[in-house]
Known about the structure:
With 200 residues, this protein is an alpha/beta fold. It is 52% helix and 18% strand. Helix 1 (5-16) packs across helix 2. 8% of the residues are buried. Belongs to the zinc-associated anti-sigma factor (ZAS) superfamily. Anti-sigma-W factor family.
Amino acid sequence: MKCPDKIIEWMHDYLDGDIVPDHEKALREHLQHCPECSHHFNSLKKTVAFIQHASHLAPPSDFTKNVMAKLPKEKKRVRIGRWLKNHPFITAASLFVALTVGSLFTTWNQGQQFSVSTRENVVIQGHTVIVPKGKTVDGDIVVRNGTIKIEGKVNGNVTVIHGEKYLASAGQVTGEVEEINEVFDWVWYNIKSVVKDLFE
């Protein structure tokens, strides 16, 4: 016959010192007539006595160090994964930079179409942009996959990407003249453009 669950609860209450007198009396009577519960109760008392005795023992000072040294070494992939989880902002920023640089490299390799940023006061012949003598272009000129000849005046910057620039001796450019034929120059040019747009 199975003993009621309240007997086990009373055992724990007794060992914790929280048992009420009526329950203690009923528990004692039950333990006198039930060998299984009596055996279980004695085991619990021995466990409590052992824990109380062991609580006074102190481990050696290098106990933690010795245990950690005996643990198997963590795999590098797990360590990197934990670091990434603990530093989400750095992870997100790194991923953003990697994707941005990757897209710039892709754009650099695929952008083979001729284009020019302005049509005002310029003449386009094939893939050549000409600022004629006596004409003035107000603003920046960006030429992609072509060449530029400046015989007049440009009030701004001139940038040639994947091409060449020919400046006539009489030509004047008030801003910077830049020729971009290297991928790292292209990346730097795009970074500068983004920063400039943000500040404007």
